[in-house]
Amino acid sequence: EMSPAIKAPLLPNQEPSSSSSEEERHGSFAGAVFNVSTSIVGAGIMSIPAAFKVLGVIPSLSIIAIIAWLSNISAGFLMKSTLAGESTTYAGVMKESFGKPGSVAVQIVSMVVTLGAMIIFSIIIGDVLSGNENGGFVHLGLLQEWFGSHWWNTRFFGLLFVYVFLLFPLVLCRRVDRLALSSAVSFLLALLFVVISSVLAIIALVQGKTKTPRLFPELNNGGESFFNLFTASPVIVTAFTFHFNLHPVGFELKDPLEVLSATRISVILCASIYSATGLFCYLLFGDSTMTDVLMNFDQSSDSSIGSLLNDIVRLSYAVHLMLVFPLLNFSLRASLDELLFPMELSLVNDNKRFFALTFPLLISCFLAAIAVPDIWYFFQFLGSTSTVSIAFIFPAAIVLRNVNGISTLREKIVASVMLALAVATSIIAISTNIYSFTRTEET
Description:
Layout: H1 19-22, H2 29-40, H3 44-55, H4 57-84, H5 90-130, E1 132-134, E2 137-139, H6 142-147, H7 155-171, H8 180-206, H9 223-239, H10 246-250, H11 258-285, H12 304-340, H13 351-371, H14 376-401, H15 409-442
Antiparallel strand pairs: 1-2
Helix pairs in contact: 2-8, 2-11, 3-4, 3-9, 3-11, 4-11, 4-14, 5-7, 5-12, 5-13, 5-14, 7-12, 7-13, 8-11, 8-12, 9-14, 9-15, 12-13, 14-15
């Protein structure tokens, strides 16, 4: 059955829907809060404890607060500029400011960010279910721990099952508001992860088993460890990038500006969750905190309650990622459609195009997750380039370009500072990554 045409965000040139169906078609405010929060709390949360290990507690908490505040401001810039113009999409508002190159830049960067995140999610889900080998150390997956090693619980079959029976039905949703329920469940699972890791840390604290956290980074070997601080910042920036979903969520609300209140609530919620996760997991694991903290939870605990909690932490997080996946897929498919078929009508009404975009995206994510079991290096580069562009560089550039003449002096000053910070951090992070990468290659 064909859905009626809707004012689908990431798709230009559609007819607005008839007034009779308009009322029932609006997304809810709570749905918007959950969808934005779920876009924020993706896989980023897993690398926050490692950022605490590098930066120390006080700089980490400060950077989380600053980036949360800047993300909220840049979301405001983006929606204000969008509503002053004619478009209803991120690519559209960039096109108004910078012409065709601007819209293509946003589409490509958004696709890199969302596809990259979907592959990371699949890898983490594969790790949790079927384990992996890291530096000669074998981490068992939940399926191996429960049932022993069999052909059907290897990474390939474990992920195949998840893709066919869980992800495929969810990516067939044609409106982002339909995903509000799965987003709410997914957000509550992320919350469960934080609560359990906090409880484990508090128990360890009472028993005197916690590691003493560093409040500030250790700068013992001079310049090198100073520059390492800049590789930890993009990890936190990546963890606050939700801007590619701002328009799809906003333009399904009755008043698109309401998405900014939803964003403010989401950003505060997520900053609290990140701070708690980073602090408690760092307390629990100290310097043995891994880049993906879920790996720390597979170390066998002293008690059966401990190992049960470890299993719950890992499973709840894997399911959380499975439920975030369709949200990112929604935005990826819409960007790809806008890039390839800019003049076509709404994707919602075109079955052939909808399936022609959905299947190849799903298959390529699956194959990438099987082929590349460890992808963290690659994503430090990505975090320091594409997510910084989406969250800060493009919104600041739109304000400074000011094609509709609406930017105030204060906004221009904030945008200039945001742009300078983003570009400087990116350059330092990329060069530090290249330096440490070449050094590990040499050793």
